[in-house]
Amino acid sequence: PMKNYKVNCYTGNLKGAGTNGRISILVKGEKGETNEIFLENKNKNLFERGNNDEFGFRSVDLGKIISMKIT
Length: 71
Description:
By secondary structure, the chain is mostly beta strands. It has strands at about 1-10, 25-30, 30-35, 35-40, 50-60, 65-70. The strands form two sheets. Strands 2, 3, 4 and 6 form a four-stranded antiparallel β-sheet that branches. A two-stranded antiparallel ribbon has the order 1-5. It is elongated, with a radius of gyration of 13 Å. The mean pLDDT is about 95.
């Protein structure tokens, strides 16, 4: 079965924090892992200093989340 997941990304508030780069994640759980998921929102300037950005995605049930790789 498919399941909804939510990821919150907080960008620090130090001078020089933030990026205009393309950010992606890979999520690994006890039952499987995702393919690369790009964190995008064309209507918002993401990963700016001090921001908290929220993203949702659907995937097969991954079980208990073990790790997340951010690139």
